[in-house]
Amino acid sequence: MLDELEAQARSMYDAGEYTHALAEFSVLREVRARREGPYSVKYLSALHESVRCMRHLGLWRDTDYLCTELHAKYVRTHGRGEAATVDVAKHWAWALLHLDAVDPAVRLYVTTADALWPLDEPAARRLLGAAAVHSGDPLDGVTLTHTTELAHALADLDGLVKNETGASPSIDFDGLAPV
Questions:
Q1: What is the DSSP code (8-state) at residue 136?
Q2: What is the C-alpha to C-alpha distance for residues 109 and 88, in angstroms, rounded to an integer?
Q3: Is 54 within 8 Å of 63 (Cβ atoms)?
Q4: C-alpha distances in angstroms, 16 versus 52, 139, 140?
Q5: What DSSP character marks residue 1?
């Protein structure tokens, strides 16, 4: 029964019916948390899908709330640089920006870029770009492992922006300039 509910929720999500999908994923979250526990793979998956729906619906406070839980659990179980953790960090930072919580969003972008640096440097650079758009000095007050590398990458980004005539920073959810 739960697998059918999950398939139905995914189908609704794929069809762009985010409100209905969120309702289904929310039911799945509640049932799976009680039956399988708050760290079960299927519970975390339903939580992650709920976050994705909320982003599409612009439910920023709810996204912030769920991402707080999900990100912490993913960091403990997967690590900061794993794809699912990075995806949640992006959702969370995007919600924080919509809630005008710029400093926490910038810290999240930077710490995620730091974890991602040895695994996927181009993706880490995109996250740094998102941080740089919102902060004059995104590395200020953040403890990092790859501080030198990130500082050089930010200097490169700064040089690129200054060399572009009429360049203006603009980002989307993934930290990329819209095409």
A1: S
A2: 11
A3: yes
A4: 11, 37, 39
A5: -
C-alpha–C-alpha distance, residues 44 and 20, integer Å: 19
Of 20, 75, 80, the C-alpha closest to 49 is 20
CA–CA gap between residue 93 and residue 173 (Å, rounded) = 9
pLDDT tens, residue by residue, 6-56: 999 999 999 999 999 999 999 999 999 999 999 999 999 999 999 999 999
Q: The tokens of 166 are what?
A: 């009429």
Reading phi first (left if > 0) and then psi (alpha if -120 to 50, else beta), residue 17 is in: beta
d(CA 151, CA 146): 9
Residue 97 tokens read as 């920006």
pLDDT category of residue 91 using cuts at 50, 70 and 90: very high
What pTM did the predictor assign?
A: 0.83
3-state secondary structure of 91: helix
Residue type present at position 63: T
Rg (CA), the chain: 18
